[in-house]
Specification:
globular, 2 domains, Rossmann fold, 7-stranded parallel sheet
Length: 257
């Protein structure tokens, strides 16, 4: 290697180290929001644990869906406690909240950052970190492991778990633990994967797409183990039956809006 190339490599490594240290400092400065209690249900209402693995209120749709659905469920007399991972959701008065902290490795301004050593305290942290560093999407799996722990010992407080599209092994484990679980799947991610593969132009890109969407096979296995699944349209129901092999009679349509 020539001296010029060594200098360039050294500058690049120095930049990586500086950015990593800056991201670790930002991590130290982050504060987890406080939990808050849910408004009690009115007579005949249900007590619902509402799960969403990322509660982002502006991007991606899940956080927006969570905010408005939880608000309307409370207005109908149900008690709703949202268990959410970061980015944290924006929730209305009367809706309970329990933060389920994760590493949030896609956060701005540090997307795909290296986690600090002190962040890797539990097995879900390692699952999330190793998954991101190897090009997969591990957030749902890690969240499900964490929220199962958060719900431990609280079975008598809730009538129902409503999971918003996490669909990870930990959700199936909650059902095995004796929880009634209602799953929402807005549309099958197999469609997204197929579109991404159609637009990949190199073998490396196709490998990256398959690696990122590796969670889809897990979703299919978990969905087939759950009970009723809610989706948002007849088109989505047809796609879920065709793409994921879920029996049509287990799918219910609840339109958005």
């Amino acid at each position: 290697m020539t001296r010029a190339r060594k200098d360039v490599a050294g500058e690049h490594m120095a930049g990586v180290v500086a950015r990593t240290r800056a991201s670790w400092q930002r991590t130290r400065e982050l504060r987890i929001p406080e939990a808050r209690s849910a408004r009690p249900a009115t007579p005949g209402g249900l007590s619902i644990a509402f799960l969403v693995y990322r509660g982002n209120p502006t991007v991606g749709g899940q956080g927006i869906y969570t905010r408005y659905l939880s608000r309307e469920l409370v207005a109908l007399g149900h008690s709703v406690e949202v268990f959410a991972g970061p980015p944290w959701p924006l929730l209305d008065e009367g809706v309970g909240f329990t933060p389920v902290p994760g590493l949030d490795l896609y956060r701005q301004p540090d997307p795909f950052r290296f986690p600090a050593p002190w962040e890797l305290r539990h097995w879900p942290d390692w699952v999330e970190a190793l998954g991101v560093l190897t090009g997969s999407f591990p957030e749902p799996r890690a969240f499900a492991m964490r929220v199962r722990r958060a719900l431990r010992g609280r079975r008598e407080e809730f009538d129902l778990i409503h999971d918003d599209q996490c669909i990870a092994p930990g959700i199936a484990a909650l059902r095995r633990d004796g929880w009634p679980v209602l799953e929402t799947l807005h549309h099958p991610i197999t469609v997204d994967r197929r579109i991404a593969l159609d637009h990949a132009t190199t073998g490396w890109q196709r490998y990256g797409v398959r690696r990122w969407y590796g969670f889809v096979k897990t979703q299919i296995r978990v969905l087939r183990r759950l009970g009723l699944v809610v989706t948002v349209s007849e088109s989505s129901r047809r796609d879920i039956v065709r793409e994921m092999g879920v029996p049509r009679e287990r799918l219910r349509i609840v339109p958005v809006g």
